[in-house]
Amino acid sequence: MTRLDGPGDDRVERPGDGPDAVALEIADAVESLTNLWSLAAQEATLRLSPHQLRALRTLEAAPGLNLTTLAERLDIGLPTASRLCDRLEAAGMLERTLHPQRRREVRLGLTPQGRRVLDDVASRRAEALRVALAAMEPAERSALSRGMKAFLAAHSGGSPAPGEPPGER
Known about the structure:
Elements: H1 19-42, H2 50-61, H3 67-74, H4 78-90, E1 94-98, E2 106-110, H5 112-134, H6 138-155
Antiparallel strand pairs: 1-2
Helix pairs in contact: 1-5, 3-4
């Protein structure tokens, strides 16, 4: 197991290194990162609720969704999604257009203002993360990077082979 708190043999498991103890430490770190993310979003040019930000991010990743699909992807009810889109449209961040072949279907997309807001949030988040990472020692950043790659590989079911650097598959 990789130690984040100092040099030594990375393969030696020490007391407190078990999955339960590490899971609690990571949960604390994730909560801190979530707060950093939320603060960056709140400091953006236009303040967005978490639901509004998720909706914009979803539409950025999949432009042209209809309201039903957006509601499903956000795991919210159709009336809630409709009100959410009403607010985003009123703020100039979302536009509704008729589907070219199915005239009863409305497609949702970001406006240039919506894209600017997402860019602003992303920029603020990246800067906040950069500041936090700059306060770490290079070895700590490296250990964090290796640990995150290993976590992502394990989470996706693609654990690296012994001796293989994470993310090399």
